[in-house]
């Protein structure tokens, strides 16, 4: 059976519509107890080999099995793991996890809004501390890509710049810019992260569909900032 992680990070064993947590990890076998022992006072005991195979129920349960509930638990565990190991949007991760379930198991899932909020909070714990100033902001290693598709760090005029400009794009985005006869540009102030005044985007039409080709984080909204941003992008296109 497929062992998955509990909310506390421990192993959880699904078996015949029930779930168990480790009671004793022995030399030759593992003893598991019902995960609902506290809420139902269930005495159930399961034993497996060290490899978590060869299941044997030693003491039965005092409540009914619920395979749909177990399926939902496994799905939630997979969703949380996917959020840790991929850059996909939490909404996409949730949708993918739910799509693999039957209708009854889907009804046992926590609300999408609750789960996606949990995923975002989970990811935020792995984030570095917010910089006190832009002189503390260095973008390197895994932080040079973001989102799906993977937007790469196209340019960063670096620590010490009086007007910090950070630009992300994809190879496809740059190609779309090069092929487009019109660029649609706008800045969003509400979505700008701390230390920046605006999130600036450049969009183009591809097959009559508008798509964002470039994302820019701008410290200022001056003419010199816009000129520097556009000159940098034009050199990359």
From TrEMBL:
Keywords (A to Z) from UniProt: Metal-binding, Zinc, Zinc-finger
Cite the residue spans of the region called Disordered: 105-126
The family database entries (InterPro entries) matched by this protein are listed as: Znf_FLYWCH
Chloroplast keyword on record: no
The protein's matches in Pfam families, at most eight in alphabetical order, are given as: FLYWCH
GO terms, molecular function: zinc ion binding
Q: Does the keyword Transcription regulation apply?
A: no
Domain named FLYWCH-type is located at 5-63
State what protein this is by name.
Answer: FLYWCH-type domain-containing protein
Annotated source species: Acyrthosiphon pisum (Pea aphid)
């Amino acid at each position: 059976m497929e062992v998955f992680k509990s909310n506390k990070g421990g192993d959880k064993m699904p078996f015949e519509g029930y779930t168990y947590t480790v009671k004793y990890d022995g030399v030759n076998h593992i003893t598991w107890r019902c995960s609902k022992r506290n809420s139902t006072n269930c005495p159930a005991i399961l034993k497996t080999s060290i490899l978590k195979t060869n299941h044997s129920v030693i003491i039965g349960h005092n409540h009914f099995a619920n395979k749909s509930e177990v399926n939902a638990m496994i799905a939630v565990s997979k969703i949380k793991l996917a959020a840790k190991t991929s850059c996909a949007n939490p909404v996409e991760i949730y949708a993918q996890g739910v799509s693999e379930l039957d209708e009854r198991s889907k009804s046992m899932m926590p609300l999408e809004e609750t789960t996606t909020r949990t995923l975002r909070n989970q990811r935020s714990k792995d984030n570095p501390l917010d910089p006190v100033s832009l002189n503390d902001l260095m973008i390197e290693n895994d932080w040079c890509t973001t989102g799906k598709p993977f937007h790469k760090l196209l340019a960063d005029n670096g620590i010490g710049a009086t007007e910090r400009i950070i630009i992300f794009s994809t190879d496809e985005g740059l190609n779309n810019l090069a092929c487009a006869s019109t660029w649609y540009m706008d800045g969003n102030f509400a979505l700008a992260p701390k230390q920046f005044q605006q999130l600036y985007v450049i969009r183009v039409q591809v097959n009559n569909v508008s798509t964002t080709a470039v994302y820019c984080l701008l410290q200022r909204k001056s003419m010199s900032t816009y000129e520097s941003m556009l000159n940098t992008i034009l050199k990359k296109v």
